[in-house]
Design goal:
14 helices; 483 residues; 23% strand; Aldehyde Dehydrogenase, Chain A, domain 1; Aldehyde Dehydrogenase, Chain A, domain 2; alpha/beta; 2 domains
């Protein structure tokens, strides 16, 4: 019998209304475990307990918060190899990526542990005599966190860590596709010196427990990462309660390769950005906009590099691209391949389902050429190992194509020109710009977020996280009678 894993609610591990199976996308015969699905009554209980616990935590000493967050971070870092293997097993990313994700998750906690000791306010003199002003930040209260399956540990941690650091309670609903990572993180947090109910793990379907969570009047703020449609639905639902929201949603990132680029570096960055993580990254560069003067030479090298990628079991040594996350995702990918061909793009290589020694959701990375920016495959986020080369006759045209999207998360340029790089950094309508780097890959100590349909609300990560997880309070103090 497979082990059953429970939700963590109000300081207790509790069975749910039902259980779901968690199977590896690398091998559908590999049953990782059974995972509880929370009930609505349990959700109400978790939120009630969170409110009570948050009142205590909000008045806890900053050194206590520091010790708790540092303990969580250090354990994640120490166990990165072990936990990373579980993460790779359930999500499908190669072992090195799984290990790296857990390590980075630990860094979020150690970073925000340090931030707890830097909670400095501001003072000012009033325009009125004898009055002083104190400006400080206070926690928003109970935060609902809804995290995705593609980075099940890192994305959750970059939300949970600042929420706790700034004095809030957390009700976390992870993606049902990757519950094993959630339970491991929940177990680590549950062992800390926290008020019972401050942290709650609520596994369940997004359409049921997730919807009930975001509509709940007891939630003070919602941080979500996922699709545009779901994000807009959350914003609409949250508006009824005037709940504060932070939404990280879709993208259609572009890498512009100029005629003066280092071709080998450009190809390396394109392959990394387009196909790393099986293309299942919000920062992936699925549009490769290439200057006409070096287009053919770039495509020739890119084709060789793409075909050389090893697709295999996530835990198999040497695997560079694991399986896609699910059968549904694979079928959507295959449909998008067909759509690209029907629109007139030329499929140079890949795109087909692959057979391996285990029954999994394997797909060869797909490379299209002859693309137009108006094609569906260049307008919609595919979340797949699919990239399309679009030819541009000049830098100006390339920049225009980069910005011709309803999204605006990341964009990159490959060039040796400082003038072009500077102009691109200032002119690309995105939240993150990369120069001579892959579009995928960001640091934890600086702001992260986008524009347009990519993001809504305050930025995530770094010191910017304080904007979402706290309220500002301005206090006026009569200094007493004048001397």
């Amino acid at each position: 019998m497979s082990q059953k894993h429970r939700n963590y609610i109000a300081g207790q591990w509790l069975a749910g209304a039902s259980d779901i199976e968690n199977r590896s996308p690398s091998d559908t015969n590999d049953l990782i475990g059974l995972y509880a699905q929370a009930s609505r009554a349990q959700l109400d209980s978790a939120i009630d307990a969170a409110h009570d616990a948050q009142k205590t935590w909000a008045h806890s000493g900053i050194e206590q918060r520091y010790k708790v967050l540092m303990s969580i971070g250090e354990e994640l870092i120490k166990r990165a190899e072990e936990i990373g293997q579980v993460l790779s097993r359930e999500e499908g990313k190669p072992q090195a990526e799984g290990r790296g994700e857990v390590y980075r998750a630990g860094q979020f906690f150690t970073y925000y542990a340090a931030e707890t000791l830097r909670q400095l306010g501001h003072t000012a003199d009033s325009v009125r005599d004898g009055i002083e002003i104190d400006v400080r930040r206070e926690p928003v209260g109970v935060v609902a966190i809804v995290s995705p399956w593609n980075f099940p540990m890192a994305t959750a941690c970059w939300k949970i860590a600042p929420a706790l650091a700034f004095g809030n309670a957390v009700v976390w609903k992870p993606a049902n596709l990757t519950p094993a990572s959630a339970v491991i993180l929940g177990e680590i947090i549950s062992r800390q010196d926290l008020p019972k109910g401050l942290f709650n793990l609520m596994m369940g379907a997004g359409s049921e427990i997730g919807q009930a969570l975001i509509e709940h009047p007891g939630i003070n703020a919602i941080s979500f990462t996922g699709s545009v449609d779901v994000g807009k639905g959350i914003a609409a639902s949250a508006a009824a309660n005037l709940t504060k929201v932070q939404l990280e949603m879709g993208s259609k990132n572009a890498l512009a390769v100029m005629d003066d680029a280092d071709l080998d570096l450009a190809v390396s960055c394109a392959v990394n950005g387009a196909f790393g993580g099986t293309g299942q990254k919000c920062t992936a560069s699925s549009r490769l906009i290439v200057h006409a003067d070096i287009h053919d030479a770039f495509v020739e090298k890119l084709l060789v590099a793409t075909q050389a990628l090893k697709v295999g079991h996530a835990l198999e040594p040497g695997t560079q691209i694991g399986p896609v996350a699910s059968e549904a995702q694979l079928q959507a990918n295959l449909a998008n391949i067909q759509s690209g061909r029907e629109e007139g793009a030329e499929l140079l290589t890949g795109g087909q389902r692959l057979e391996r020694s285990t029954s999994g959701f394997y797909q060869a990375p797909a490379l299209f050429v002859g693309g137009r920016n108006s094609m569906r495959i260049n307008r919609e986020e595919l979340f797949a190992p699919i990239a399309c080369v679009i030819k541009a006759d000049s830098y100006d045209e390339a920049l225009s194509l980069v910005n011709d999207t309803r999204f605006g998360l990341t964009a990159g340029i490959m060039t040796r020109s400082l003038a072009r790089a500077t102009h691109f950094r200032r002119s690309a309508r995105v939240g993150c710009v990369m120069v001579n780097l892959p579009t995928a890959g960001t640091d934890y100590h600086v702001p992260f977020g986008g524009r347009g349909d990519s993001s809504y609300g305050p930025r995530e990560q770094g010191r910017s996280a304080v904007e979402f997880y706290t309220h500002v309070k301005t206090g006026y103090i009569a200094a007493g009678a004048p001397l």
